C-alpha cells in the first residue's frame, strides 16, 4: 500500500484521516523530516508498528535532530528565507490557496522555514510540486526525494533549510501544522524581495 509522506519535520504525526464512514483511523503516516520513523518502522506509528491514535502528537523537542541527515550537493544557494518566499510565490502562480511561510527556527534545529499551500485536487498538487521543483532546480536548488507524490494529497519537498508542504484541504485541516506551530512567526512572503531572474511572470 502506498504511503503518505511523513509529518513535517518535528511536526505532527498522526494516523491518516479516517475514511468516509469508517470508525477507525487510517494508519498511513504523514510527511516529515525530523519526525522520521527509524529503520523498520511502519506507517503512522512507532518502530514496532503500533499506529498512533488520531490526535496524538510527538513532542517537537523529541524530533529536533536526525543524525543521518545530509545536505544535497549544491543545495541552498539562496538564503533560506528568500527561498521559502520564492517557493510561496511559485505556489501562488499555480493558484495555490492560503499560502503561509512559517519561521520555525525557534522550534526546530533542522529546518528554518515551512511553506504550506493548499491545492484543491491531485492534479493541482502535482502542478505546484512540479513547478516548484523545476523552477528551483533551474536556480541550482535540489531537494531530497519527494514524499507523498504517489498519493497526491500531501506532498513534501525537502530543501533541507526549507520544507515545502502542498496539501489538499482535508489533509491540511486534519494535520493542523499551522496550529502546531501557532506561536511561530509568519513571514509576509509577498513583501520579501526575490532574485529578479527567479520571480517568474
Describe this protein with a few key phrases.
single chain, 201 residues, alpha+beta, Beta Polymerase, domain 2, five-stranded mixed sheet, 4 helices
Outline the structure in words.
21% of the residues lie in helices and 13% in strands. The chain is α+β, with helices and mostly antiparallel strands. The chain has a domain at 71-198: Beta Polymerase, domain 2. A 5-stranded mixed beta sheet has the order 3-4-2-1-5.
Main structural class: alpha+beta
Strand order of the largest sheet: 3-4-2-1-5
Name the CATH homologous superfamily of the domain at 71-198.
Answer: Beta Polymerase, domain 2
Order of helices and strands: HEEHEEHHE
Helix content estimate: 10-25%
Q: Write the CATH fold name of the domain at 71-198.
A: Beta Polymerase, domain 2
Mean pLDDT: 73
Question: Strand tally, please?
Answer: 5
Radius of gyration computed on alpha carbons: 16 Å
Shape: globular
What's the helix count? Answer: 4
Strand percentage, roughly? 5-15%
Please outline the major beta sheet: 5 strands, mixed
Uncertain residue segments:
10-15, 18-28, 34-69
Overall CATH architecture of the domain at 71-198: 2-Layer Sandwich
State the CATH class of the domain at 71-198.
Answer: Alpha Beta
Distance between the termini: 40 Å
Amino acid at each position: 500500500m502506498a504511503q503518505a509522506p511523513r509529518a513535517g519535520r518535528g511536526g505532527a504525526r498522526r494516523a491518516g484521516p479516517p475514511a468516509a464512514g469508517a470508525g477507525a483511523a487510517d494508519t498511513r503516516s504523514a510527511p516529515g523530516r525530523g519526525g522520521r520513523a527509524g529503520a523498520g518502522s511502519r506507517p503512522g506509528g512507532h518502530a514496532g508498528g503500533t499506529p498512533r491514535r488520531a490526535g496524538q502528537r510527538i513532542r517537537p523537542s523529541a524530533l529536533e535532530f536526525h543524525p543521518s541527515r545530509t545536505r544535497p550537493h549544491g543545495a541552498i544557494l539562496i538564503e533560506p528565507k528568500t527561498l521559502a518566499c520564492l517557493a510561496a510565490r511559485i505556489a501562488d502562480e499555480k493558484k495555490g490557496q492560503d499560502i503561509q511561510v512559517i519561521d520555525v527556527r525557534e522550534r526546530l534545529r533542522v529546518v528554518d522555514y515551512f511553506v504550506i499551500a493548499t491545492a484543491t485536487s491531485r492534479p493541482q498538487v502535482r502542478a505546484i510540486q512540479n513547478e516548484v521543483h523545476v523552477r528551483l532546480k533551474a536556480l541550482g536548488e535540489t531537494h531530497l526525494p519527494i514524499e507523498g507524490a504517489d498519493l497526491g494529497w500531501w506532498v513534501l519537498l525537502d530543501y533541507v533549510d526549507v520544507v515545502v508542504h502542498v496539501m489538499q484541504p482535508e489533509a491540511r485541516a486534519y494535520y493542523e501544522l499551522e496550529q502546531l506551530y501557532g506561536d511561530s512567526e509568519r513571514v509576509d512572503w509577498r513583501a520579501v524581495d526575490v532574485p529578479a531572474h527567479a520571480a517568474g511572470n
